[in-house]
Amino acid sequence: MGWARASLLLWAWATLEAFEVMEKENIFQKTPCPAFLMFDNAAYLADMSFELPCHCKPEQVPAVVWFHQKHLGSGHTQVLTDFDGRLLSEAAQVRTGSDVLARFGIRMFSLLVHRAQPEDSGLYFCGTRQGDYFYAYDVDVQSSEGLVATFEDRGQEPSVDERHGGLRIFTTFWEWTPCDRCGVRGEQWRLGLCYLQSPDLPPRYHTTPPGVVSCGSRAVPRRYRAMALAHAPELLVRSCQVPCINRSRVREGVLALYSYVARRGSKPWLPRVPIQFHQQRLGHGLVLSCPGARPEHAVAWDKDRQPLYHTQYLKAAGRSPRVFIDHGHQLHIRSAQPSDRGTYYCWRQGARVAGIRLGVLSRGRQPASLSDPETRSALQLALLGYLLLTAVFVTVHLCRCCCSSFLCCPDWGP
């Protein structure tokens, strides 16, 4: 009965997978390409990754090629894929500042751009190797350099809309992120990007609602661009507190006993997370990154048991603190001091995911410490070699004693 039920489930799953693939393939049959090429406006913050779907293409076209132009009608057009449309890149291997040709890929005819930069703004076309375009986007990647942070706990409010005759410049906010910590007081934030509304926008740019585009869009008239670019993105931050969700069942035995003892004691139980060890020279700076974190994630940092809240440590214009958190959730320590020693824990989407144990060296030579995994490994190897030599020595002498007792071995003496 069990095998029959399993076979039925596998058949149903295969049917659903085939139906899903068929639906994806039939999208292009149901979505005709527009007779007049329009541009869909899309806005993102720097260092974000995004996907641009090619919503339509002729059925006889087996692969698409993506093109990029800085301005409409520009003589320089970048080809972003090979002519088979199969050039891919892994997001984990992409670093900030790398060339655009190394930060994109194709999946199901969609263009993937990893960690976009303001210079990636422009027009993106989905078409063929012959230069026939089917779909197009107007992409605006807004810089985070002048980002304005607003803290609701301090009574601060977002900036008001700017009006210049028929032009209105305002901020459109995303949804609130999840709480970045659990079990303790945390923070959540929402990102706001710059948009403008004007009746003078060209009709070739498709916007929702009509007459509204992002401030860096190619649809913005030239006379409005300076005012639009002066309106910086915003970040709203507020406090929150949510209970921790037990994502995995605690194993019986040592872990369960450890959890029980920790709950009975004065210190709260801390989840086991990967710990990386790092030694930093005194007076040198370093940057700590949270594994797997993206700019749109809710990320938090703790030093040992002290939370590093954005309210106090977020990088702001006009300030240059020695320890701060940038808008990409990286923790910066300028000119490391002995007081910076400790374990820095990283939270991502409300769960603690990693830790970095930082040591600060006051001399050029690194001192030996049992907290260093390399020192512990060297001691373990030395102890293992000593035990092996001891075992060989004892075995040889036991064999000699046995041979001497039974008079069955030659005399090895001098």
Blueprint (SSEs and pairs):
Blueprint: H1 2-30, E1 39-45, E2 50-52, E3 65-69, E4 78-79, E5 104-107, E6 110-113, E7 122-127, E8 133-142, E9 148-151, E10 162-164, E11 167-173, E12 186-197, E13 205-206, E14 212-214, H2 225-229, E15 234-240, H3 254-264, E16 275-281, E17 286-288, E18 299-303, E19 306-308, H4 310-313, E20 323-325, E21 331-333, E22 342-348, E23 351-361, H5 373-406
Beginning-to-end CA distance, first to last residue: 79 Å
The stretches of 5 or more residues where confidence is low (pLDDT under 50) are: 12-28, 82-98, 249-255
Strand content: 25-35%
Rg (C-alpha, Å): 30 Å
Q: Which word captures the global form? A: elongated
Strands in their spatial order, largest beta sheet: 4-3-7-8-1-13
As an assembly, this protein is single chain
